[in-house]
Amino acid sequence: MLLCDIGNTSYHFLDPSGRDFKESVTTFNPQTIQERVYFISVNSYVTQKLQELKNWIDLSAYVSRANYYETMGIDRIFAVEAIEHGVVVDAGSAITVDRVENGVFLGGFIYPGKRAMQQTYANISPALEYSFNFDVGLDIMPKNSQDAISYGYLKTLYSEVSSYNLPIVLTGGDAKDFAKVFRDAKVEEFLIFSGMKKIMKKASLC
Amino acid sequence: MLLCDIGNTSYHFLDPSGRDFKESVTTFNPQTIQERVYFISVNSYVTQKLQELKNWIDLSAYVSRANYYETMGIDRIFAVEAIEHGVVVDAGSAITVDRVENGVFLGGFIYPGKRAMQQTYANISPALEYSFNFDVGLDIMPKNSQDAISYGYLKTLYSEVSSYNLPIVLTGGDAKDFAKVFRDAKVEEFLIFSGMKKIMKKASLC
User: Fold this and answer.
1) Is A71 on the interface with B (CB under 8 A)?
2) Which active-site residues of B does the annotation give?
3) Which backbone phi and psi does A70 adopt, to 5 degrees?
4) Which of B72, B160, B162, B163 is the mutation pick for testing A, counting most A CBs within 10 A?
5) Which of B43, B68, B90, B111 is best to mutate for the A interface (most A CBs within 10 A)?
6) Among B69, B108, B182, which Cα is nearest to A149's?
7) Domains within chain A, CATH numbers bracketed
8) Which of B54, B103, B148, B205 has a beta carbon 3.0–4.6 Å from B142's, enabling a disulfide?
9) Which residues, at least 6 apart from B89, have a Cβ–Cβ distance to it below 8 Å?
10) What would the pLDDT profile of B85-124 be if each residue is shown by its tens digit?
11) How many whole angstroms separate alpha carbon A149 and alpha carbon A128?
12) Considering only residues 79 to 118 of chain B, which have any Cβ-Cβ distance to chain A shorter than 8 Å?
């Protein structure tokens, strides 16, 4: 049995031993896998292809979508399902911030990911073409350009998220960078897989 | 006597009657003006051209740059000079946020302007290609994509700026949009010109 989180560029697998691995959406053939795979997918092309394969089971059918909003990505929903009380900060190409209190999803917002935002500043002016300084002081107003954009990107996000006074769970490809900003956050690389396991237990699939 | 704030695309004039007008940097010939013009300029090409004209007086020489940081734009410095105590939010192609307490500049940060940030979300995913909703509720977590990006852009900025507990002064081309978010802010369209007048008085130039 495998778990698989399918994005726009890759299949992200987790095997029962806790080992994860990725395969490219463009080159990987899902028919090569014989065992049962429980998956979620934000990739509609792949989702359609997988409907023909009986051993690939789409877990999206097992969550109550009514608790969420219509256009909310299924990966975001499964990250939220993983926690009972807290705020999920999923730092990837976009950063999604979702608030859950006592098992109830309260809503969430979308902020640009690191690379997208760096490009934004560079496009505004070549004078703002810097990498972000994730060690920028959050208690002192910046007095140089690199810190001025780093603070503008990171402290605004921090001020909003910390105002919820909730435990923060960090996930996504850039979680380690953001852990420098959200110092009390718990980093959970496999949060979506946790959500998948929780839903499978609820549905008696495992 | 005229005041002029020169940007990358235009000369922005203010005449003694308080009327303002703009001229294009590419087509306007500054030699056509005979009267005295006090100016600041972020446009190094224009600045150099104006050095030959005796009736164009660069006010940047009259501020103590030591109070600021080296790469800080002169327009930003003059906006800050205009106030004694408060936070200046200058909403243009970038948004600069500068904090001044009891006449002392404490530092500031840079956030993307409206158009740049809208493009950022659109580049991340076509599903995020929306105009910002400046009327988005700031007290309730979003539950649709347009509000999720509007809140992500606006509420994060709001949370940070409002945490200073200082009077907010809004200026720049997009000030009217942002006045919907910063409801207690004072909109001062001509803040830079106010700064210029203040510096001229200090230097006994008027």
Assistant:
1) yes
2) 75
3) -55, -45
4) B160
5) B111
6) B108
7) 2-64+196-202 (3.30.420.40), 83-187 (3.30.420.40)
8) B148
9) B95, B96, B97, B161, B168, B169, B170, B171, B172, B175, B178, B182, B185
10) 999 999 999 999 999 999 999 999 999 999 999 999 999 9
11) 7
12) 93-95, 97, 99, 106-113, 116-117
Q: What pLDDT, in 10s, does the model give residues A23-43?
A: 999 999 999 999 999 999 999
> Tens digit of pLDDT for each residue in A117-147?
999 999 999 889 999 999 999 999 999 999 9
Q: Which residue has the tokens 């500049």?
A: B105
Residue whose tokens read 């509609």: A44
- The residue with tokens 């910002």 is B132
Amino acid at B144: N
Structure tokens, A201: 């237990």
pTM summary value = 0.92
Q: Of A5, A15, A75, A139, which one is the catalytic site residue?
A: A75
Query: Quick check: B94 and A128 CB within 8 A?
Result: yes
